[in-house]
Amino acid sequence: MPDFLEVINSGTHATPVEMAIRLGTALLFGIVIAALYHYTRPPEGQGTSFPMTILLLCVLIAMVTQVIGDSVARAFSLVGTLSIVRFRTVVRDTQDTAYVILSVIVGMAVGAKNPWVAIIGIAVVALAELLFRLVRRTNAPAHPEYTLRLRLSPDHDPDTLLNAALGKDILTRELISIGTLDKQDGTEGIWRLQPRPGSDPAALIQRLTAISGVRSARLLRRGIDED
After folding, report:
1. pLDDT digits 0-9 by tens, 49-82
2. Which domains are delineated in the chain?
3. Which of 28, 186, 212, 224 could be disulfide-bonded to 154 (CB atoms 3.0-4.6 Å)?
């Protein structure tokens, strides 16, 4: 066997078959975590590559744990090497960060030959997600609420425009934020809306976009479909 393979084997005290089993187990756990993320997070908040990142991260952390073994010097060397990597992608939701940490911990547990930590941890997280979804459904308002994002051309009053376009079809309206983009792009505002029963959100958007001065309009469902 080549010398470099003997060094790795002496640090981890595992045969190639054992390593393959551990990494395969990490892959299975990564698939479970990615599936849990996919079925518990709102569809509009999911990144296209985030579930695959979670899956691969679980396997990679298991590999790192195998490389480190019981060597403190090797652990510090890997920390210095990995610090070179820079991640520019911003996590959309703080709850997504919890899934990243979960994937890291599960990968470490599998790599350290303690799969029960991974199994029980995933089960507890899944139970917490289930209870959280039940609470959200229970506390959801009788009539669905929406978040309206509206971009207007300069010299247009948002309140006057909304009253003219949606005044009869809105039960409540609450301003969340409003600001200017720049002198040429105009104003962007965010409101929390509660349409009257029977109102069609698609019709509301069509009515808004048909008004002169509205550059873009978007409705996001709150409560069940959005955090």
Report:
1. 788 888 888 888 888 887 777 777 767 766 665 6
2. 3-138 (no CATH), 146-221 (3.30.70.60)
3. 186
